[in-house]
Amino acid sequence: MSEIRDWAAIPCDLLRQIVGKSELLIDDYIRAAAVCRSWQACLKQPKFPVCLMLPENEDEDNNMRCFCTASEDKVMERELGELRGRRCWGTPFGWLVTFGLDLEIQLFNPLSRACVSLPSQPTFNTLNLDDGFAYPTPEGFRKFFLHKFAFSSTDPTSPDCVVMAIFTTRQVLLGFASPGDEAWTTIGDGSDAFALDDVTYFNGSFFAVSSLGLLLECQDLDGPSPKCVEFAKSPSYESDDNSVYPQQYIVDLNGHLCMILRMLGSYDIKNEAGEIQVEDVNVTEEFVIFKLDMQSRNWERMVSLGDRCLFLGNCCTFSVLATHYPGCTPNHIYYTDDDYANYEKCGGYDTGIYNFDEGLLLPLDGESDRFRSKFCPPLWIHPSSH
Fold first, then answer.
1. What is the distance, to the nearest Å, from the Cα of residue 235 to the centroid of all Cα atoms in its chain?
2. Which Pfam families does this one have (predicted)?
């Protein structure tokens, strides 16, 4: 008579060691955790790799979405009909912000399939500046209205979590809301609006960076007149190449508020025969990073990320300790295409990896159809089942 083994009684340390050496895909890990309660308890906090979520196939009725590491190793493929036709932004805590032609804004977890609603697009107070919006159609709003997001909590489902959004009318504005709110609250009255590139949450406050490199702090969010005030001047930097210009990002880098300058140049995309396929495409040439002294409010240029790496583009800007995540390399910047004005002609083209130590660019397969999208190119996300 064969011996009956109680697999549920496997010691947690042994189970984690077996799973850790098996190089399981994320879906396999989730299935393993679902075997029984004891396995679920042992495997309840897996450390998934940071993933690049590839676009949907816009020309076919196919809802499969592929997730791969920065080294382009596939770690998950899931049928996600919930994302069909929706523009998405990645986050470092497992959730996507999604925005569709229905003008609904949602938080969606691609592993658990949990969905949380935020106030819809029509509830934004545009301060009567939306009469100049160039594309007042569902397709136009999906592509141009929302730009960036930041969160006050790693649990965006919490009613205490504040979501900050950069949105566009005739001017670029900031608005915030929490799950359960009926509408977004706009910061300021539009008279002092800045063109904004990015927003983040740091040390209990939201900070935004303008296209001119000014650092702004959001204040009085609980009061009747929330506002944005200048916190620090732009860092001093002049490129040797007058043909490039910066796009700014801000991030909490190991406890320091840092500004990243993504230097862009304009080029024509040519085929192998040298024929121009797409004109005037913005392409990344290098990155420059500055660290802020919060007391003096002066910027210091950084020469290394140390053992950390950065993720930016069509997502919240975030950093991780590279040695803790498969597929990540220290002192590297992983970027995706967030030039939404050019999504129609080449969305996804400017995607790659930057070796910050050596100043070398490694473009990912931006010419491939699997990277291209007219409204939602690849994005970085750190999957989580919670």
1. 24
2. Beta-prop_KIB1-4 (PF03478)
Contact 386, 97 (CB under 8 A): no
Other residues' Cβ atoms within 10 Å of the Cβ of residue 245: 15
Q: What is the pLDDT of residues 336-359, one digit of tens each?
A: 999 887 888 788 889 999 999 999
Tokens of 65: 């979405």
Q: b/e map of 178-190 (b: 16 or more CB within 10 Å)?
A: bbebeebbbbbeb
Helix or strand run (H / E) with residue 75: strand 74-79
Q: What is the side-by-side strand order in the sheet with 146-151?
A: 146-151, 163-168, 172-177, 185-186
In whole angstroms, give the CA distance from residue 238 to residue 158.
43
pLDDT tens for each residue of 284-343: 999 999 999 999 999 999 999 999 999 999 999 999 999 888 789 999 999 999 988 788
Q: How far apart are CA 233 and CA 267, in angstroms?
A: 31
H or E element in which residue 66 lies: strand 64-68
Burial-class residue 125 by CB neighbours within 10 Å (0-12, 13-18, 19+). middle
Which structure tokens are listed for 359?
């100043």
64 closest CA partner among 116, 110, 114 = 110
92 and 318 in contact (C-beta within 8 Å)? yes
What is the phi/psi pair of residue 328, to 5°? Answer: -100, 145
Look up the pTM and report it. 0.89
Q: For Cα atoms 379, 219, 208, give the angle at the middle one, nearest 5 degrees.
A: 30
Identify which of 333, 341, 318 has the alpha carbon closest to the alpha carbon of residue 364.
333
Other Cβ atoms closer than 10 A to 151: 22
Sign of the CA dihedral running 86, 282, 146, 311: positive
